[in-house]
Specification:
Elements lengths: L1 H20 L14 H7 L3 H14 L21 E3 L5 E3 H7 L34 E3 L5 E3 H9 L13
Antiparallel strand pairs: 1-2, 3-4
């Protein structure tokens, strides 16, 4: 019993010596809290005021030619605007990229894109990939082959939401 106590005591002394001889671990500084006033000051340039005003107005109404695209901030022309179900628009290039990344409108956060790569095709139940997605008018997507067969079968509405094709 005496040897056991001696061994445990020796182990504790060695562990304490090792702990005390280690260099201190540098503490990370706490993240600085930014208040909204500082953020607004940085964003208060003339361009910032115009963008904020444009997007505030755009959130509450249908997008119009001359509005800025919420993704690339370029001015949109009637010919290159792609309207979403919520009434907001993006330029065509941004829409084609955005539809594979997010489900919601960047302005109002309403669902606008119902199918993303990785979701299952409603016909064959296999995963969709960006390379083989065909979007219906309702923004649900099917594989190109499934879409073609679905249309050729005489279908008149989406197999998921029943919106007219």
């Amino acid at each position: 019993m005496g040897y056991l106590l001696f061994g445990v005591g020796l182990a504790l002394v060695v562990a304490l010596a090792i702990y005390l001889h280690q260099p201190p671990v540098p503490q990370r500084a706490a993240p600085q809290q930014r208040n909204e006033d500082e953020d607004e000051d940085e964003f208060e340039g003339t361009m910032g005021k115009r963008l904020r005003r444009n997007f505030t107005e755009q959130r509450t109404r249908r997008s119009l030619p001359g509005d800025k695209c919420a993704v690339c901030l370029d001015e949109m022309n009637h010919g290159d605007m792609k309207y979403m179900k919520c009434g907001h628009a993006m330029d065509g290039t941004c829409f084609e990229e955005y539809r594979y990344i997010r489900r919601n409108c960047p302005l109002c956060d309403k669902p606008i894109n119902l199918s993303l790569p990785g979701d299952r095709c409603a016909i064959c139940l296999e995963s969709l990939s960006r390379a083989n997605m065909a979007h219906l008018r309702c923004q649900h997507a099917l594989h190109f082959e499934c879409h073609q067969q679905f249309i050729e079968s005489g279908a008149k509405c989406c197999p998921l939401c029943r919106e007219k094709l």
